[in-house]
């Protein structure tokens, strides 16, 4: 099946398949999601779909299996919640945490990631270099530039303590 044939197949069958899965599942959004995912999977197999002789049945079967897989996953998650209970309540972030997050948002993504890995995840320069696929010198550069940028943005707590604020 060529790309054009697949697009035509999609246009002719997506509404019908979504309606069929809606009836099977009882949830329109879920039907739309699994049918779309099935078509995505079918796209990579489009050259074999035509030879199989039943591309619509294939899409419908894949969509059904995706829905069943989602149900099983949801059931396992619900069972885990029942066994362990809800997670403990997380503390609301304080003003200092909010200020830090806001300041970090102003940094380029690489600097923000490196600073977080170093100061929050407590990783060494070498570990960060391996995780980010960068050289240690690049990591050090991002750390230095990030700290400089944060120093311009965030108040220095040592000055606040000295002034009694």
From TrEMBL:
SUPFAM superfamilies: Sigma2 domain of RNA polymerase sigma factors, Sigma3 and sigma4 domains of RNA polymerase sigma factors. CDD domains: Sigma70_r4. Residues 10-77 form the RNA polymerase sigma-70 region domain. GO terms for biological process: DNA-templated transcription initiation; response to stress. The keyword Hydrolase does not apply. InterPro entries: RNA_pol_sigma-70-like (IPR039425), RNA_pol_sigma-70_dom (IPR014284), RNA_pol_sigma-E_actinobac (IPR014325), RNA_pol_sigma70_ECF_CS (IPR000838), RNA_pol_sigma70_r2 (IPR007627), RNA_pol_sigma70_r4_t2 (IPR013249), RNA_pol_sigma_r2 (IPR013325), RNA_pol_sigma_r3/r4-like (IPR013324). One of its GO terms (molecular function) is sigma factor activity. It comes from the Bacteria. Residues 77-96 are annotated as: Disordered. Pfam families: Sigma70_r2, Sigma70_r4_2. This is RNA polymerase sigma factor. It comes from Actinacidiphila guanduensis.
């Amino acid at each position: 099946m060529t790309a054009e044939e697949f697009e035509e197949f999609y246009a002719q069958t997506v509404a019908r398949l979504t309606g069929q899965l809606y009836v099977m599942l009882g949830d329109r959004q879920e039907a739309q999601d699994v049918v779309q995912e099935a078509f995505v999977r079918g796209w990579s197999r489009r050259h074999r779909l035509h030879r199989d002789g039943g591309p619509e049945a294939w899409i419908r079967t894949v969509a059904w299996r995706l829905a069943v897989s989602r149900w099983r996953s949801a059931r396992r998650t619900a069972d885990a919640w029942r066994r362990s209970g809800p997670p403990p309540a997380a503390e609301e972030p304080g003003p200092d945490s909010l200020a830090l997050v806001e300041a970090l948002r102003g940094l380029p993504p690489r600097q923000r990631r490196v600073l977080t890995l170093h100061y929050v995840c407590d990783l060494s320069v070498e570990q960060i270099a391996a995780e980010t696929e960068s050289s240690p010198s690049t990591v050090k550069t991002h750390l230095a530039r990030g700290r400089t940028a944060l120093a311009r943005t965030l108040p220095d707590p040592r000055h606040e303590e000295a002034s009694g604020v």
